[in-house]
């Protein structure tokens, strides 16, 4: 039945008016075919059943419509019993997640399926759509553009929202009954769309590390499909006690999911839900030691020990006994790092300590140092280059994710350019700046002339910026 539905849908889109479904299309006012080229089987589906049913759809559709390209979901892996032509990847996270994946497609297998990034957006640490979120997406998009031989298509999601009826955050275009504005991400999409060359050029970026905001934040505890309890929770700094809750109640804690109870000096969580957290403290805290005891009561994994929490919904924690109780690792900034094997026993109290000093993180379990790392720090600059042969232009897109200006020497390696060009820059005074109905272009592109000279020139890229350089070829 479902396979036949897919075949009927294709006939409705592309079939002649003499066919059953083509006639219905014509009756609806569109006699010309829609020329459908792609069909995706499912949306965010995966697992054994999906992999078993994929060949049923593939064989039936290809037998009748061999020209249709079929797209498979990537949800815990994609089916390989019949290799898909295109796979659909979805990404929603914080700006650092996207920045740290700006180069991921550089290393993709060129002999495998092509990629459709069917849904992506910064949805954490971005307000209702701020500049920093847009810059994270822009860095990621340079990687998609550089690798357009494998990344065939991409689509931001979602597109529209009435500001009086929000169900998702953020949305690219916001409106009410008489006004409209685009968030900074809208302008990123616009710039990448309007300034596209026909030919991708090779590019090498030698970049310093990004200047980052101060590391620090609130603390917390959590679980993943596990019941656990915590006690002797303390945060200290230079001999001063910043936090030592009596744990008689959960007052003062920000509880996210689960079933929490505090009594007799113990904070207990008795749900086996995923991503359960209790957060407390000041986001301005830096350079502190967070210590506690934890005991697993039941379940699949161990403990989540949260530190440097700036956003309650973003991962910034030490995952102890994670991934099926197989290993310990630090997760923050969209990166899983410094993994070591290990497991957590049920019914045993563990001494846990996290020391935060600047960007350095030390994690101790029962007095043993398991992690001694620097917080993830991305490179400052990400770029892509294309050539528009029709307009005789070189187009260079450069994203500076640093919180400071970065000067760069741009070498065109033999390409001759005219004496003047244009720099179109998307940035603002503050990474948290947003647009609104009252100020719809607070964060919007600004254009200025540049004089690139000959084959190399210096240019300074503002902090948290996307710059499009348009250089006329001679």
Secondary structure elements and pairings:
Elements: H1 2-14, H2 20-27, E1 38-41, H3 47-64, E2 69-73, E3 86-93, H4 95-99, E4 114-122, H5 131-146, E5 151-156, E6 160-162, E7 173-175, E8 180-182, H6 184-194, E9 199-201, E10 218-223, E11 226-237, E12 240-243, E13 254-256, E14 260-263, E15 266-269, E16 276-280, E17 289-299, E18 303-309, E19 316-321, H7 322-325, E20 327-332, E21 335-341, E22 349-357, E23 360-365, E24 368-374, E25 381-388, E26 393-400, E27 406-411, E28 417-426, E29 446-450, E30 456-461, E31 465-473
Parallel strand pairs: 1-2, 2-3, 3-4, 4-5, 6-7
Antiparallel strand pairs: 7-8, 9-25, 10-16, 10-18, 11-12, 11-15, 11-17, 13-16, 14-15, 17-22, 18-19, 19-20, 20-21, 22-23, 23-24, 25-26, 26-31, 27-30, 28-29, 28-31
Helix pairs in contact: 1-2, 5-6
């Amino acid at each position: 039945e479902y396979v036949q539905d897919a075949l009927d849908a294709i006939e409705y889109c592309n079939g002649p008016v003499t066919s059953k479904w083509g006639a219905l299309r014509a009756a609806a006012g569109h006699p010309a075919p829609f020329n459908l080229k792609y069909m995706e089987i499912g949306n965010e589906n995966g697992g054994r059943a999906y992999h078993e049913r994929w060949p049923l759809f593939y064989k039936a559709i290809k037998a009748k419509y061999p020209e249709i390209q079929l797209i498979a979901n990537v949800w815990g892996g994609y089916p390989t019993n019949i290799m898909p032509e295109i796979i659909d990847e979805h990404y929603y996270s914080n700006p650092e997640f996207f920045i740290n994946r700006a180069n991921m497609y550089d290393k993709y297998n060129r002999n495998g399926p092509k990629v459709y990034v069917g849904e992506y957006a910064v949805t954490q640490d971005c307000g209702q759509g701020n500049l920093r979120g847009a810059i994270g997406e822009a860095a990621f998009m340079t990687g998609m553009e550089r690798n357009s031989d494998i990344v065939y298509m991409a689509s931001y999601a979602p597109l529209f929202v009435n500001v009086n009826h929000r169900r998702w955050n953020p949305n690219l275009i916001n409106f009410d009954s008489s006004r409209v504005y685009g968030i900074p991400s809208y302008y990123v999409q616009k710039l990448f769309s309007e300034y596209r060359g026909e030919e991708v050029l090779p590019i090498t970026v030698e970049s310093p590390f990004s200047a980052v905001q101060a590391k620090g934040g609130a603390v917390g505890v959590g679980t993943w499909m596990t019941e656990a309890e915590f006690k002797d929770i303390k945060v200290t700094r230079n001999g001063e006690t910043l936090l030592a809750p009596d744990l008689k109640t959960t007052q003062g804690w920000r509880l996210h999911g689960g079933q929490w109870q505090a009594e007799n000096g113990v904070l207990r969580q008795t749900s086996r839900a995923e991503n359960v957290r209790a957060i407390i403290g000041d986001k301005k805290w830096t350079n502190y030691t967070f210590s506690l005891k934890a005991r697993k009561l039941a379940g699949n994994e161990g403990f989540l020990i949260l530190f440097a929490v700036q956003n309650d919904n973003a991962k910034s924690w030490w995952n102890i006994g994670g991934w099926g109780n197989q290993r310990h690792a630090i997760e923050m900034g969209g990166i899983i790092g410094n993994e070591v094997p290990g497991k957590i026993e049920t019914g045993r109290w563990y001494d846990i300590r996290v020391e935060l000093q600047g960007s350095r993180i030390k994690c101790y379990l029962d007095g043993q140092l398991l992690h001694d790392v620097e917080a993830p720090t991305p490179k400052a600059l990400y770029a892509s280059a294309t050539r528009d042969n029709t307009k005789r232009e070189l187009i260079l897109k450069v994203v500076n994710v640093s919180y400071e200006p970065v000067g760069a020497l741009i070498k065109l390696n033999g390409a001759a350019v005219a004496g003047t060009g244009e720099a179109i820059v998307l940035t603002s005074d503050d990474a948290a700046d947003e647009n609104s109905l009252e100020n719809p272009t607070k964060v919007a592109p600004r254009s200025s002339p540049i004089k690139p000279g000959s084959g190399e020139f210096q240019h300074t890229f503002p902090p948290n910026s996307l710059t499009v350089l348009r250089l006329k070829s001679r």
